[in-house]
Write a structure and sequence with these properties.
Blueprint (H helix, E strand, L loop, with lengths): L1 E5 L2 H6 L3 H13 L2 E2 H8 L3 H13 L3 E3 L8 E4 L1 E5 L7 H27 L22 H20 L22
Parallel strand pairs: 1-5
Antiparallel strand pairs: 2-4, 3-4
Length: 180
């Protein structure tokens, strides 16, 4: 499997739907899965899971697992799927903004779900974090920061769970300040 894949405009258009993005994220996290496993994992209806897997397969983001004669198990096209650097055109950039919005909505729903359960499980609140910062950085310093963040996230993802640990989902979004 390739380490990295840059999204085409057509592939990005498929990912503007939150459910489709959620299914792709499941494959990126777990590797090889069937639509039935995705359905169980994400709590989707069978029809929805198969539809989302089909969309991702048609877009070239999921590939059948080699040796699976009936093509029921799939894997992501690469370990990391990202948008290419630099301006890709106005339509691509609008689609990218929609894809980010879908991820933000999903993160917000997870945050709300934890907050709603805080009465029964107050320890969950200690795992919530919301922070913002406004930084003034050169392009080189920004690239250094994003490289360090990517390494930190990769190191954390590769660490072995210890007793008392909990899986966390982080979504980091940076945007330039247009008010300057």
């Amino acid at each position: 499997m390739k380490d990295e894949h840059n999204l085409t405009e057509a592939q990005l258009a498929v990912l503007v739907g939150p459910r489709t993005h959620e299914v792709l994220d499941a494959f990126l996290e777990h590797g090889e899965l069937s639509a039935t496993q995705v359905q169980t994992m994400l709590g989707f209806e069978s029809k929805s899971a198969y539809y989302q897997v089909g969309k991702l397969r048609k877009a070239g983001l999921l590939l059948p697992v080699e040796g699976d004669q009936r093509a029921k198990t799939f894997r992501p096209v690469a370990k990391r799927i990202r948008m290419p650097e630099g301006f890709q055109g106005e339509r691509y950039e609008r689609l990218a903004a929609k894809a980010v919005s879908a991820k933000l909505r999903r993160a917000s729903r997870r945050f709300e779900a934890v907050a709603a359960r805080s009465g029964q499980s107050p320890e969950l609140v200690g795992w919530l974090y919301l922070g913002t910062a406004t930084l003034t950085l050169s392009k080189a310093a920004f690239e250094e920061l994003t490289t360090k963040i990517a390494k930190l996230l990769q190191d954390a993802a590769n660490s072995k769970p210890e007793p008392g640990t909990r899986k966390l989902r982080l979504l980091l979004v940076s945007t330039p300040d247009l008010d300057d």
